[in-house]
TrEMBL record:
Gene3D superfamilies recorded: 3.90.1150.140, Uncharacterised protein PF07075, DUF1343
TM regions (residue ranges): none
Signal peptide coordinates: none
InterPro entries, per the entry: NamZ, NamZ_C, NamZ_N
Protein name: Protein YzbB
Every Peptidoglycan beta-N-acetylmuramidase NamZ N-terminal domain range: 56-256
Superkingdom to which the source organism belongs: Bacteria
GO terms, molecular function: peptidoglycan beta-N-acetylmuramidase activity
């Protein structure tokens, strides 16, 4: 069957202030190498007005590199632009040495000798003790543009802590790797807020972290953050058009393809099927021991989903769900990323994984007893609709209005129009 395009993706046709060539994703011409400069590069070259030599803390991880792949920690530690005195690590840690979901401890950075504070351990936000002695708190982490990726939640909680402490909050901006010209999925219902959804935005929000920080501050009445804006980034650019080096944002998102699929295939994480963790293609391989890969691929292919193709595949995860057990499933191949609607894809995957054997399939519960997929989608509506046998177009009905409202809501926060 061919599925109607009712997946609530916002493009140029929905936003009259966007150039017409952005409709349908547009054609992106790659920038020359180094053409885009991140907020870190700009800070190192120009400094931050009013904070010259200030004692600062830095929330960062291995993605916080300059365009020469040198660590921002090392660059700022050796720089006189600011005085770097403390480090703060999100999920996976300051140096990226922790696996997904693993608690991160505090300690000392072995390279610089700076104290490291964990924002993914006992505490999820900086405490008063962690911020003592600072004159500003900096954030430099490469996000992936998806609401349930935990780096954005870390930033929001750090903003709140900085506001309470009267500290300037500074974001060194980086590209949204999925471009800033697409918005898709439901807006979070705050009744389902969690660390995989800390602020009411759609699943794919189309913002940079600097723009997101501006939106959060404006709507929560916090001081406006200082955003060290990029130079040369255009809203329609995907990461591979920026000329910047790719550093995988976390252990299970190794490539831009995995990030491209993540807004949808991450929903499988809310089930007892494997989302491909423990394989060489996480969030591309999907399946479970009880599934027939050929029937699953035929079902998904018959749905006529834009931008993707499905190959029947066997895989055996080395860790995470079904470790050491052969899983039947599919590899999802991106064939046209401009046409792809990843959140709608994710709902089709949930439906297709559940249908062959509803008794074997199960929704994964979070530590609070709430189905984890409800936390990811920001509502229990989609799960209940799938359980009731509704079609995907019925599940997504209403999303378009939500995303149009969000595009209008976010407009004052936009830095790269």
């Amino acid at each position: 069957m061919t599925v109607p395009d009712r997946t609530a993706t916002i493009g140029a046709e929905d936003c009259p202030d966007w150039p017409a060539e952005w409709a349908g994703g547009g054609t992106v011409t790659p920038s020359s190498p180094g053409a885009v400069r991140t907020g870190l590069d700009v800070l190192l070259a120009e400094g931050i007005p009013g904070l010259a030599g200030a004692r600062v803390g830095l929330i960062t991880n291995p993605t916080g590199v300059d365009r020469g792949l040198r660590s921002g920690i090392d660059r700022l530690h050796a720089s006189d632009r600011v005085s770097l005195v403390a480090l703060y690590g999100p999920e996976h840690g300051v140096r990226g040495d922790a696996q997904a979901g693993a608690r991160v401890g505090a300690g000392t950075d072995p390279r610089t000798g700076l104290p490291t504070h964990s924002l993914y351990g006992e505490e999820r936000r900086p405490t008063v003790r962690m911020l003592a002695g600072l004159e500003a708190l900096l954030f430099d982490v490469q996000d992936v543009g998806v609401r349930y990726y935990t780096y954005a939640s870390t930033m929001v909680l750090a903003q709140e802590a900085a506001a309470a402490a009267g500290l300037p909050f500074v974001v060194l901006d980086r590209p949204n790797p999925l471009s800033g010209s697409r918005v898709e999925g439901p807006t979070l219902d705050l009744a389902f807020a969690s660390f995989v959804g800390a602020f009411p935005v759609p699943v794919r929000h189309g913002l940079t972290v600097g723009e997101l920080a501006r939106l959060v501050a404006a709507e929560r009445g916090w001081p406006e953050p200082t955003v060290v804006a990029m130079r040369g980034w255009r809203r329609e650019q995907w990461f591979d058009a920026t000329g910047l080096p790719w550093v995988q944002p976390s252990p299970n998102l190794p490539t831009l393809t995995s990030v491209t699929l993540y807004p949808g295939t991450c929903l499988v994480e809310g089930t007892n099927a494997s989302e491909g963790r423990g394989t060489t293609r996480p969030f591309e391989f999907l399946g479970a021991p009880w599934l027939d890969p050929f029937r699953l691929a035929e079902d998904l292919s018959a749905r006529g989903l834009p931008g993707v193709a499905f190959r029947p595949a066997w895989f055996t995860p080395t860790f995470s769900k079904h470790a050491g057990r052969p899983c039947g499933g599919v590899q999802v191949h991106v064939v046209d990323r401009a046409a792809l609607r990843p959140v709608a894809l994710g709902l089709h995957l949930l439906d297709a994984l559940r249908r062959p054997d509803p008794a074997a399939f199960a929704w994964a519960e979070g530590p609070d007893g709430v189905p984890f997929v409800d936390r990811l989608l920001g509502s229990d509506g989609p799960r209940r609709a799938l359980e009731a046998g509704l079609g995907i177009e019925e599940v997504t009905e209403g999303w378009a209005a939500e995303t149009r409202a969000f595009v209008a809501r976010r407009r004052p926060a936009i830095l790269y129009p």
